[in-house]
Write a structure and sequence with these properties.
Helix content is about 35%, strand content about 5%. It is mainly alpha-helical.
């Protein structure tokens, strides 16, 4: 079975998560105010847009 991964756009994180997040999965990013969650999300979307991937970010 082939596992498809979506790169985050952050090389160090991609290395830690074996090349990126699993395709078609839900990832929860949590942390205190000012921790960089929104910046991370925007970087992820930017990297995906550059590769013409369909990504989604929902912030609460």
């Amino acid at each position: 079975m082939v596992t498809t991964r979506i790169q985050t756009g952050i090389r160090g994180l991609d290395k830690l998560v074996e090349g990126g997040f699993l395709s078609n999965s839900v990832i929860l990013i949590s942390g205190s105010a000012g921790a960089g969650k929104t910046i991370f999300g925007m970087q992820f979307l930017k990297a995906g847009a550059e590769k013409k991937e369909d990504d989604n970010l929902t912030a609460l």
